[in-house]
């Protein structure tokens, strides 16, 4: 057994889970009128309500004891001071420096002057594009930005630009190409004019197969649709840590925006990887995004654990995953602009905490990261909410919504919020057999028919949710919201004693595909794999 599962704090939580599991959330609310006040936190214009989680004062105390036992405060301080907490890659994890203001030293060098230099470079570039000082080869202004990148070099900027659509500048439309499936590139390019299209090739390593294939094909398209070799420099820029590879691709160093090995891919939207964001919403709004994240960083680094939003969100997740056995966690934004937020968080959380070896090199004997998934409300209500309400699994869910919408149309926003509130309330209270029977009788239903139907219409309730409300989805608020989840993931990694900043599982995929790519091009059958893989390779070959 691991030190963690043997520890007094862990055991106390295990014992207390059996107490809490016997109490319905409805009873907890009936018993304690202060429940909302006690189990909600607000910060800036954001509120987190975790009172609809199966907790009480004792649970919170026990979770905080676990956090202290795992030295959470020390780990937070280590992250902020630039320690190499990404131990398997011997790197710091300093996304907080990308939005920071104070010196942070890594390997004897303060990283902040470089961070500021690149931000200024981005600022000059975005102003030049937006003002028309930098134009396409025929003299027309750029109208379309195509970001070519995958994973961390795609999901963050794609999610943020969608979320901040109300802030898009006139005349510029962003597009994102990630999949190596030529369908995506073809479908985007067929709508574009090379004279007015700017390509951003985004890759930390600049060796990722999908990104390089898409970048080469985009260049080919540019050259075969009117552009010439000498125009490439005007239309292609790169964001990377690997200058030699960028130059080898044919992009001049002066059209390159750098970032650093201490920025993890899925934590990189705050760096030059955010260039398509800045080009789409303007640098001032990009700075506001950084400021929002910085505010959350300051809160995370300084608020006491019990008043600390990322800490409490992380600990509630630990309570669900490790003590109630939840293996899945739903992210349900009641905001269409956040429609890519679940996909973004899926990478952030699952790639960070989908690990089973501890920092000490031992196999864990407890669950780590949950499966993260979700869709915007109210769409989900007409799809998978059935399972949330009446299925056999208890799924913990985060509901997110802005109090104000950017889109003032009829009564839509009030209807959206009414649904948010009704769903979180119904998931918590449920509907008892007595209530259902009374309802059916009031409708005048025959008693025998009602008896047959009654169990189907019972809702057990007691389904845990956390509500996150904010005033309006501004760049600043979005920055805080993303940083909230980044830090929540970190909190959980500390409790589990795993490194959230590496991704060896992703690296494996990158190696395997390269080998099979060669075999797919060969004529003869292969016997170099298991029978299934060889059979599949043969089937593909015979059908091409
Ligand atoms: C993120 C991961 C992964 C990475 C992509 C793209 O944290 O490392 O999603 O971002 O594999 O890698 P490149 O940016 O190096 O092309």
Structural description of this entry:
- 49% of the residues lie in helices and 11% in strands.
- The strands form three sheets. The chain has a six-stranded mixed beta sheet, with helices on both faces. A five-stranded parallel beta sheet has the order 6-5-7-8-9, with helices on both faces.
- It is globular and about 80 Å long.
- It has 24 helices and 13 strands.
- The protein has helices spanning 3-6, 8-20, 25-31, 35-38, 57-69, 72-81, 95-98, 112-131, 155-163, 182-189, 209-224, 232-235, 243-249, 275-281, 283-302, 309-323, 341-353, 385-390, 412-429, 433-442, 447-454, 475-496, 504-521, 531-542; strands at residues 40-43, 46-49, 105-106, 109-110, 144-148, 173-177, 197-202, 236-240, 256-258, 328-333, 371-373, 396-402, 465-470.
- A hairpin with a 2-residue loop joins strand 3 (105-106) and strand 4.
- The model has no long low-confidence stretch (mean pLDDT 96).
- The chain is of the alpha/beta class and 544 residues long.
- The site of glucose-6-phosphate has 15 residues, from loops.
Bound molecules: glucose-6-phosphate
Helix content: 40-55%
- Secondary-structure-based class equals alpha/beta
Write down how many β-strands occur, each being a DSSP E stretch of 2 or more residues. 13
Share in β-strands? 5-15%
What is the overall pLDDT average? 96
Radius of gyration: 26 Å
**Alpha plus pi helix count:** 24
Uncertain regions spanning at least 5 consecutive residues? none
Distance between the termini: 52 Å
Largest sheet data: 6 strands, mixed
Neighbour order of strands in the largest sheet:
1-2-13-12-10-11
């Amino acid at each position: 057994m691991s030190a963690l599962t043997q520890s007094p704090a862990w055991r106390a939580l295990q014992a207390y889970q059996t107490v809490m599991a016997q109490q319905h959330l409805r009873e907890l609310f009936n018993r304690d009128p202060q429940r909302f006040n006690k189990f909600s936190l607000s910060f800036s214009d954001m509120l987190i309500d975790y009172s609809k989680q199966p907790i009480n004062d004792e649970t919170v105390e026990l979770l905080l004891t676990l956090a202290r036992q795992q030295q959470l405060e020390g780990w937070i301080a280590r992250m902020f001071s630039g320690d190499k907490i990404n131990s398997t890659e011997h790197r710091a994890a300093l996304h907080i420096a990308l939005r920071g203001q104070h010196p942070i030293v890594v390997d004897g060098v303060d990283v902040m002057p470089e961070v500021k230099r690149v931000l200024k470079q981005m600022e000059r570039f975005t102003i030049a594009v937006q003002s028309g000082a930098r134009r396409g080869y025929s003299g027309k202004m750029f109208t379309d930005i195509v970001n070519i990148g995958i994973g961390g070099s795609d999901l963050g900027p794609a999610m943020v630009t969608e979320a901040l659509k109300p802030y898009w500048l006139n005349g510029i439309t962003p597009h994102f190409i990630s999949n190596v499936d030529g369908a995506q590139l073809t479908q985007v390019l067929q709508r574009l004019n090379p004279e007015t299209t700017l390509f951003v090739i985004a890759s930390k390593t600049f060796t990722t197969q999908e990104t390089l294939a898409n970048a080469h094909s985009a260049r080919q398209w540019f050259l075969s649709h009117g552009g010439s070799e000498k125009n490439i420099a005007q239309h292609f820029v790169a964001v990377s840590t690997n200058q030699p590879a960028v130059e080898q691709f044919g992009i001049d160093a002066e059209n390159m925006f750098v970032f650093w090995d201490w920025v993890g891919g899925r934590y990189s939207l705050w760096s030059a990887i955010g260039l398509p964001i800045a080009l789409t919403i303007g640098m001032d709004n990009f700075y506001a995004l950084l400021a929002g994240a910085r505010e959350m960083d300051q809160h995370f680094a300084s608020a006491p654990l019990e008043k600390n939003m990322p800490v409490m969100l992380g600990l509630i997740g630990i309570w669900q995953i490790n003590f109630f056995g939840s293996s899945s966690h739903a992210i349900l934004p009641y905001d269409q602009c956040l429609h890519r937020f679940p996909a973004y968080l899926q990478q952030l959380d699952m790639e960070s905490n989908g690990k089973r070896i501890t920092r000490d090199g031992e196999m864990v004997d407890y669950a780590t990261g949950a499966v993260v998934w979700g869709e915007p409300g109210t769409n989900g209500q007409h799809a998978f909410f059935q399972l949330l309400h009446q299925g056999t699994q208890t799924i913990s869910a985060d509901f997110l919504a802005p109090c104000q919408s950017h889109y003032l149309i009829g009564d839509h926003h009030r209807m959206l919020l009414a649904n948010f509130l009704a769903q979180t309330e119904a998931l918590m209270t449920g509907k008892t057999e007595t209530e259902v029977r009374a309802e059916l009788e009031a409708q005048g239903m025959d008693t025998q028919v009602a008896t047959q139907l009654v169990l189907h219409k019972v809702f057990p309730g007691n389904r845990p949710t956390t509500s996150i409300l904010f005033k309006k989805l501004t760049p600043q608020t979005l920055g805080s919201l993303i940083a909230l989840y980044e830090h929540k993931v970190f909190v959980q990694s500390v409790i589990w004693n795993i490194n959230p900043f590496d991704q060896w599982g992703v690296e494996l995929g990158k190696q395997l595909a390269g080998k099979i790519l060669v075999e797919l091009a060969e004529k003869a059958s292969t016997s170099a794999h298991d029978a299934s893989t060889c059979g599949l390779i043969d089937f593909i070959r015979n059908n091409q």
